[in-house]
Design a protein that fits this description.
By secondary structure, the protein is α/β, with parallel strands linked by helices. 35% of the residues lie in helices and 14% in strands. It has 2 domains: 107 residues, Aspartate Aminotransferase, domain 1, CATH 3.90.1150.10; 228 residues, Aspartate Aminotransferase, domain 2 (3-Layer(aba) Sandwich), CATH 3.40.640. The mean pLDDT is 96.
């Protein structure tokens, strides 16, 4: 990874103008995705009848990265759409409940809260003061009436990384499904839906998966497909009959009509890049950068909000506070003035490096605090 890092770094033009440490918000457009986007636009300008196949290519790439079968992947436009398809289409019965940690991202909260209007109990599990999600508390709120246990792979605010295997064991022991909002973990550390016991996995493509807004997927295994009815039937979800509806016998049934093919075609170049670099290599590099961030913050006696005691609970996100909203705002503005791009999230500053970032950039960031 170290020898080839500079090669990959040149694919990200953002590095020429700034220290970009805001990958948890969105990935900066890289040269390969940009080139493939331009190729598609040029083609449809001159030969629209020769548009390349997009859907099957992406399903195969996604199964190569996350496991499972290609026909268990549906292409959707965002994490929220994927979760809503499941929340709306699940065959809920009287007395059912869904369990999730409190204060998840809105995309993994609003679809479940809306189910209260349908009589579904929504159980929100408290998070500890250190921002860890306690597995025992999760287990205490999952019972034989729980149909879905939903969790982020990584919490967007604190950077806490969930133990997906343990969550799946809790869910499956009670006959429930494990659903994962993967957008802050997919592409930055290894996730295998089979080994981790994930039944449903929703994710947008515009963060660590190196795509753009409007791309994403919904993984839904065979067992879960039997329990989730399609809610948005369209020309790509069923056989081509005009008088009868015969859904495809796989995850394609959750797709609907036309998607932004230019964006999805370009995204395939981002997924190719991830497969080339290797998710395990990305994970190792980013852990090294976050180690450096954590050590630097500690040396300056800056309070770290992210749970960092256990390495397996760490992600590519480190959140910290300068002491108050006012001082956080001043720090954020100072960083921006020096072209160091981070995120200001409520009462914390969030830093999120990726594989194109360097130790020198981390040091520059720390020097400005």
């Amino acid at each position: 990874m170290a020898r080839s890092l500079s090669t990959y770094r040149t694919l990200f033009p953002v590095t020429e103008k700034s220290v970009y440490l805001n990958n948890a918000a969105e990935s900066p457009l890289n040269a390969r995705v940009h080139q493939r986007l331009n190729e598609y636009l040029q083609l449809v300008a001159q030969e629209p009848q020769n548009k390349p196949e997009v859907r099957a290519v992406l399903r195969t790439q996604l199964s190569s990265i996350f496991g499972g079968a290609a026909d268990e992947y549906a292409l959707v436009t965002s994490t929220g759409i994927g979760i809503n398809i499941v929340a709306s289409g699940f065959q809920w019965r009287a007395g059912d409940n869904v369990v999730l940690p409190i204060d998840e991202h809105w995309n993994n909260t609003f679809p479940w809260l809306a189910l209260r209007e349908r009589g579904v109990e929504v159980r929100l599990v408290p998070v500890a003061e250190d921002q860890r999600v306690d597995l025992d508390k999760i287990a205490s709120m999952v019972d034989h009436n729980t149909r879905i246990l939903s969790s982020a792979a990584v919490r967007f605010n604190s950077g806490f990384r969930a133990d997906l295997r343990s969550l799946s064991e809790i869910a499956h022991a009670n006959g429930a499904l494990l659903m994962v909002d993967g957008i802050q973990g997919a592409g930055v550390f290894p996730i295998d839906v089979i080994e981790d016991g994930v039944d449903i996995f929703a994710c947008g493509g515009f963060k660590w998966l190196l795509g753009m807004h409007g791309t994403g997927f919904l993984y839904i295994n065979k067992k879960a497909q039997e329990l989730v009815t399609p809610v948005l039937p369209g020309m790509f979800s069923a056989e081509n009959h005009s008088r009868e509806l015969h859904y495809f016998p796989d995850a394609r049934r959750y797709e609907t009509g036309t998607i932004a093919y230019a964006l999805f075609h370009a995204w395939s170049a981002g997924l190719e890049l991830l497969l080339e670099v290797g998710i395990a290599n990305i994970h190792a590099h980013v852990l090294g950068l976050t180690d450096r961030i954590i050590a630097g913050l500690r040396a300056k006696n800056i309070a770290i909000a992210t749970p960092i005691k256990f390495v397996n609970e760490r992600s590519a996100i480190v959140s910290f506070t300068m002491g108050s909203e006012v001082t956080n705002q001043r720090c954020y503005e100072r960083l921006r003035e020096h072209n160091v791009i981070v995120a200001l999230r409520s009462v914390h500053i969030r830093v999120s490096p990726n594989f194109f970032n360097t130790e020198e950039e981390i040091d520059r960031f720390l020097a400005l605090l």
